[in-house]
Design goal:
4-stranded mixed sheet, two-stranded antiparallel ribbon, elongated
Length: 75
């Protein structure tokens, strides 16, 4: 189990960052600090990260629809 707090330049603290969680798992594993499967605790919950021999990284965790918008296209 690893706890992670993320900060996005220009925005400030964020509630979760999947990319950061995957990178954290990869670096910790490379340093011998965790196994290939690890739980990353972020502000809004837990992301389960698995590092596969082929170099792929799989992330499993909760997801919520948080925004809807429209973009006006100039003619």
């Amino acid at each position: 189990n690893i706890s992670v707090r993320t900060f996005e330049r220009g925005v400030g603290p964020t509630f979760a960052c999947g990319t950061g969680a995957c990178a954290t798992a990869a670096v910790f594993h490379k340093l011998g600090l965790c196994e290939r499967a690890v739980n990353i605790h972020v502000e809004l919950g837990v992301l389960h990260i698995e590092l596969i021999d082929s170099g792929r990284v799989f992330m499993t965790g909760p997801a919520e629809y948080v925004f809807s918008g429209q973009i006006a296209v100039a003619p």
